[in-house]
């Protein structure tokens, strides 16, 4: 697995709880993760980083999201 992308607002488990569960598993701790969401407040961005996401992007900005994916994948390769 090269990259984890998750929404924040999901019906059963929100993305913040999801990424915490993922980060608690050693084999997934090194994989970059992006929150892709409609939430755009400074509080939600900060919470995403606190919970374990490497990046928080807004769904409606597809160009920025794709740039973020490329950057996360490029940075991952630098550290492997």
TrEMBL record:
Coiled coil: none annotated. Keywords: Phosphoprotein. Gene3D superfamilies: 3.40.50.2300. SUPFAM superfamilies: CheY-like. One of its GO terms (molecular function) is phosphorelay sensor kinase activity. Residues 1-74 form the Response regulatory domain. InterPro entries: CheY-like_superfamily (IPR011006), Sig_transdc_resp-reg_receiver (IPR001789). The modification 4-aspartylphosphate is found at residue 7. It comes from the Bacteria. This is Two-component system, chemotaxis family, response regulator CheY. It comes from Candidatus Magnetoglobus multicellularis str. Araruama. The lineage of its organism: Bacteria, Pseudomonadati, Thermodesulfobacteriota, Desulfobacteria, Desulfobacterales.
């Amino acid at each position: 697995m090269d990259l984890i992308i998750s929404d924040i607002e999901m019906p059963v488990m929100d993305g913040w709880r999801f990424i915490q569960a993922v980060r608690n598993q050693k084999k997934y701790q090194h994989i970059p993760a992006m929150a892709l969401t409609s939430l755009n407040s400074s509080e939600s961005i900060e919470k995403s980083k606190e919970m374990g996401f490497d990046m928080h992007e807004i769904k409606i900005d597809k160009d920025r999201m794709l740039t973020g994916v490329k950057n996360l994948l490029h940075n991952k390769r630098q550290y492997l």
